[in-house]
Amino acid sequence: MRSVSPPVPAELLARVNRDVERSLLRARNGLRYVRGTHRPALGTSPKDVVWRRDKAQLWRYRGGPVRFGQPVVLVTSLVSRSYILDLLPGSSSVGFLRDRGFDVFMVDWGIPDELDAENSFETYVDEYLPQAIDAVVCETGATEITMVGYCLGAVLAMLFASGHDAPIRNLVLLATPMDFREMGPMAAALVQGRLDPDELLDDTGNVPADVLYSGFYMMAPTSVVAQNATLLDNLWNDEFVKGFQAVSQWTRDQVPFPGAAFRQVVEHLIRRNVLMEGGWRLGGREIELTNTSATVLNVMASADKVVPRPASEPVGEKVGRPDRRQEMVVQGGHATFGTGRSAFKHTLPRLAEWMASHSDTRAKRRGRDADQIPRVR
Amino acid sequence: MSQGPSVWLKLVLRAERVVGSRVESAVHSDVYFDRLTEVKRAKARVTGTVEGLSRRVLHLANLPAGTDIRRVREQLARMERRIVELSKELEDQRAERETVP
């Protein structure tokens, strides 16, 4: 039988000291957390509004020297807030890309209200995105861009790239819902014979944010217990608490879904699964998803539960020209493109490397740098 | 010195997964979504009936009901949307005129 030696007094004292110190920090951070004070400010990277229409805005992020000739335009989802890609200073995807020499733009859709209830996919694909991309070209003088779509934003990006003669060199699609039969519980309540889209709309004509939140919540209803227990264990750690507050605020911060676009999602994407036919009739014409000359990178997260891999995999067969399709699988869940341990260690470095190798080193351009005086259209 | 999660946390996480996986398989099942649809529709029917009754009572006293206000709000929103569309058309035409030499 092996004997276990008791800890030496110095070791024991250090452990007691550490536990006392952590208990005090836990008490302090716990009070702050309950009071709701010391919430971190989110989406604070310095930026300028360079274009706006209705509630949609195009932001250009300020930063160091630009090394690449193709500006990166991020297109975010319609159902969640765009600041997931610019969460906190030091853990911001746009900050990461900016630091690596990309000229980063982001299209933000704003928070829809009754005025946006008639916004359809045509509004985003044929009205907002063409104008926003014109603004990027005008602002930078670039002849080509790299467009990065995230989640439903990736659907908008691929429809825009295929439906317009757009100057897109690289089309990066992150966690793209393509095959809606594989979307699992996210789409199950809305299949034929279950809830009709109009049953979920409120007085404003939009799907209320809390309905969307409850949809995400029901993906893993008990996970809140694990999250709060992990918080309690790490309550002494200021950085952990800050990150936890940031992510939980983003998770709860859903925005209403414009009614007309929601009807299209249910009728066309979920019930008819039109994207799997390789196109979609939008704005009076058929958009063929192969009709883009951009190099398409389909990026999937290995543990994504919101858009599972089987739902994204067909992007590799349906979007872009067959000789210009590439695929990347990254570690983590749906939010790994904006937050989490692997985001800044694996996901973003790999994405940045791919984008750099598919971009030109920047030559002198006729446009202005992000640090020069902004212009709002 | 890096340390893993505490023993109590490991236990909580394990228990959460045991319970959570069962809850998830229940709330991701067809039965759950069918019931959800039925409950949502039943709730809408009850709300509609109550609203209809209260509207009739309020109208007897010549008072507007919530559904009247909702209809007015919807009309206002439609008008506002139309105004926004017209403004955008005007704006686009102005921009077009400015770009033509």
Can you lay out the helices and strands and say which pair or pack?
The complex is a heterodimer of chains A (377) and B (101).
Chain A: H1 9-35, E1 47-53, E2 56-61, E3 72-75, H2 93-99, E4 104-108, H3 121-140, E5 145-150, H4 152-163, E6 168-174, H5 185-188, H6 209-217, H7 223-233, H8 238-252, H9 259-270, E7 279-282, E8 285-288, E9 295-301, H10 309-312, H11 315-318, E10 325-330, H12 341-357
Chain B: H1 7-27, H2 30-60, H3 66-99
Number of strands of chain A: 10
What is the count of helical runs of chain B?
3
Shape of chain B: flat
- Please identify which CATH superfamily of chain A we are dealing with: Alpha/Beta hydrolase fold, catalytic domain
Main sheet makeup of chain A:
8 strands, mixed
Task: Describe it.
The complex is a heterodimer of chains A (377) and B (101). Chain A has a single domain (47-357), classed as Alpha/Beta hydrolase fold, catalytic domain (Rossmann fold), CATH 3.40.50.1820. In chain A, the strands form two sheets. In chain A, strands 1-2-4-3-5-6-9-10 form an eight-stranded mixed β-sheet, with helices on both faces. A two-stranded antiparallel ribbon of chain A has the order 7-8. Chain A has helices at 9-35, 93-99, 121-140, 152-163, 185-188, 209-217, 223-233, 238-252, 259-270, 309-312, 315-318, 341-357, and strands at 47-53, 56-61, 72-75, 104-108, 145-150, 168-174, 279-282, 285-288, 295-301, 325-330. Chain A contains twelve helices and ten strands. Chain A is globular, with a radius of gyration of 23 Å. By secondary structure, chain A is an alpha/beta fold. The model of chain A is unreliable at 373-377 (pLDDT under 50). Chain B is an all-alpha fold and 101 residues long. Chain B has helices at residues 7-27, 30-60, 66-99. The A-B interface holds A 53-54, 114-115, 117-118, 184-185, 188-189, 194-195, 199, 203-205, 218-223, 225-226, 229-230, 232-233 and B 5-6, 8-9, 12-13, 16-17, 19-20, 23-24, 27-28, 30, 33-34, 36-37, 40-41, 44, 70, 73-74, 77, 80-81, 84, 88.
